[in-house]
Structures are given as structure tokens and as C-alpha cells.
Amino acid sequence: xxxxxxxxxxxxxxxxxxxxxxxxxxxxxxxxxxxxxxxxxxxxxxxxxxxxxxxxxxxxxxxxxxxxxxxxxxxxxxxxxxxxxxxxxxxxxxxxxxxxxxxxxxxxxxxxxxxxxxxxxxxxxxxxxxxxxxxxxxxxxxxxxxxxxxxxxxxxxxxxxxxxxxxxxxxxxxxxxxxxxxxxxxxxxxxxxxxxxxxxxxxxxxxxxxxxxxxxxxxxxx
Amino acid sequence: xxxxxxxxxxxxxxxxxxxxxxxxxxxxxxxxxxxxxxxxxxxxxxxxxxxxxxxxxxxxxxxxxxxxxxxxxxxxxxxxxxxxxxxxxxxxxxxxxxxxxxxxxxxxxxxxxxxxxxxxxxxxxxxxxxxxxxxxxxxxxxxxxxxxxxxxxxxxxxxxxxxxxxxxxxxxxxxxxxxxxxxxxxxxxxxxxxxxxxxxxxxxxxxxxxxxxxxxxxxxxxxxxxxxxxxxxxxxxxxxxxxxxxxxxxxxxxxx
Lengths: 222, 256
Known about the structure:
heterodimer, A: six-stranded parallel β-sheet, 7 helices, B: alpha/beta, seven-stranded parallel β-sheet, 47% helix, globular
């Protein structure tokens, strides 16, 4: 039986990962403000079949507001909400709605988060807060959903996989990252292969709550 | 400077200081010499907290403040500056009620957003409003997070998530504000507060379980165990420390 995979969040890295992941992949890109507890229940595949059970859910939903560097004194309350609070709540509501679909398959939920959360980044405070919140949401879900045999992880990726090219260099400077030890950043195919492995019960059934950093060795802070 | 009064002449705001950890931190900052603004939503808590500090011979004033409202936060900062001449220490401690323990799918829907806003929007508002004044000293911003904000929580997943968000904010603001000399840190405490006492009353085995996994064998005291950590972070002794989370929980969490 083929795996049912849901990727929530378009653009990069969601779209490029969706193209590389194994299984029947449904990519959706909602506006975070439109996501409620019934969001997953309301989804259907291209042929109109409603989502009914998930083997893997990959969260990559980061609005443009989150990805735009801005000093904190220049941010408005509305800007902050759009960049941090609203997508954070959307992620929580995606998870709430996905629970019954993941239980049905003893599935896996993975949050792809930018490294700016773990490492900190000047002028990307809202994105960093959002990322660190999601990294720990994965741990909380791992703890509470473990008895249901649902596994939860965070995969931390280099900022360049989330930010528009014109902002990437500034983000790397703002995060004070080293050059990747491997001399290059991983491709989307390499990241997707790791996510596939994390969702493969034959390989990783004893692993949950992990926070993997996949950035070619740019950051080794734990 | 009188011995022990390492914050003599400084001015602090502590949000959520009407009780619990916030009250303990406010008392400790005042005892260390800072003039303290008790920022709290309810005068019923805030006034007695300020009065208790004044009764001990220190300087404190209560200002009503809903930390989720920009106007309230700005007015609180303005009050501190007008009354005491500046702002050196901003401590955001206020937290929303987390609701009944349980998995994320069981959290009451209407209890999600208040937790997010009280942690993240309020951190933003406190940071933005205090920055011009902190730059002048330069001063320090301290956010209260939690060990759950590092290791996650099966029973308080929203709380753990928003507390982690604050750690991301701390690390990034430390990078953003460091060149101006403003330091930003977090404290992750575990203490016997009114909220903890209520949780223990609802779940009598909780305290025993928490103490059993705490190497120091007891829960923290807000004023005696957590307050001094804030004093240290605000003091010159911590002048080279920024972007850090100090876990003050008796050794229960050792994962950093």
C-alpha cells in the first residue's frame, strides 16, 4: 500500500520537498490565518478523495512576513502577529486536526524549521521565535502521542532553504553561521531522504522527539 | 553602594509581578537596590505586591498593565521613565492560564491564542517599548521561559511551545541588540507559586513526582531561589552574558 503524505506549506522548502518525498504526496499551501482545527479533515487529493489517514505529515508553513528581515523597532503589532503568532497557531491547529489521521496509520509528523530558531538571528526575531516554538512542539507531540505510536520530529534546515535569495546572505551573517563543514548545503532530495527515513517504521520505529540539524555541518550547537 | 545592593540606582519593570515568580523577582530586584514597577493586570494583586516591597524599605509602584495591549505596555514604560528617570531592566514574566493538562488535541480551542499572545506578542511589545530606554543605559531584557520550553511537555504542549518561542526571541534579540550593549537572557524556573500550588491541589502526587526528579530535593522559592538569578542577570557581573537561558529548577533539567 502506498504511503499517504501531506506537506503543509508551499514555496521553499515545502514544494521542493514535496517533489522528492516518497508516496502519494499532497501539497497544500493555505494562508495561516485560514487554518482551523478542521483544516486536515477538509483536504482532498487531486482526484477528490478526502484525506483519510496519514502516514506522514510535513509542516513547512512560513508566510512571507516571517521570512522578511526586519529590526524589531520597525515592526508593528500586525506585522508581529502575521510573522509569528498566526503561523504558530496555524501549526498547532494543523497538528490538532491531524491527530486522528496519524493515529489511523501510526504515522509521523515532522516540522521543518529554519536554523534561525536554534541559533538566533538578528532582524529575524519573529521567524526565530516561530521556529523554536515548532521545534519544541515536535517534542511535546512526541511525548503525548508516543502511546498512540505517532512519532514526531523536528528537522532543522539552513536559513537559505526558507529565505528569498536576496535575504539569505544577511540571514547567514545575522545567525553567525560557519561555512558548512561538508562544503555544501544538502539538496532537497537529501533532506527528503532523511524525512522518508524518519517516517519509515522499519528504520526509525524507536526514534521520536528528535531534533535533527541538516545543514551540511554549518551549526553544531546541539 | 551598600553591600548587596548591586542594582542601586537602577529601574526595573516586572510584568506579572502581582504574585508568584514575578513577585519574587520584583522583591529581589528591589532588595538589590532597583526601583521596581510592578506591572500587573489586577490591582488586587499588584498593589499588595508593591506595598510589601515598600514595607521592606525599598522602592516600588504598581501600574495596571495588560501585556497583550501595546498602549498598556507603552504607558507602563513611560510611567517608569517619568517616575524614576529611565529604565535599566525589563522583565517579562506574565503568562496566561494553560488550562487543563492534556495532549494538544484536547486543549480547549479558546485557550490557545491567549497563551500565544501573552508569551510572544507581549515579549515583542515589552522589547519594542523598552528598547529606546535600554539602549541609553545600556540595560537588559529578561524573559521568563520554562524547562518545558526546552524539552517539551506531554501535558502542557501549548505552554511548552510558547515558552520555546520566547527562547528563540531571546537568542535573536541578543544578536540584534548586542552591538548596542543591550543584553537579552531568559530564566527557566521551577518554583512553588500559586499556580503550582493550584496544580498540586488538583493533582496531589505532582509535587512528590517533581521533587523526586529534582537533585536538590525541593521546589524553588520564587523570591529566594529565582529572584537572585534575575538580579545576577541584571547586574554588572553578567555583563558578558547574553542570549542564554538559565535553568533555575534545582537540577531537574540537565539537557542544555
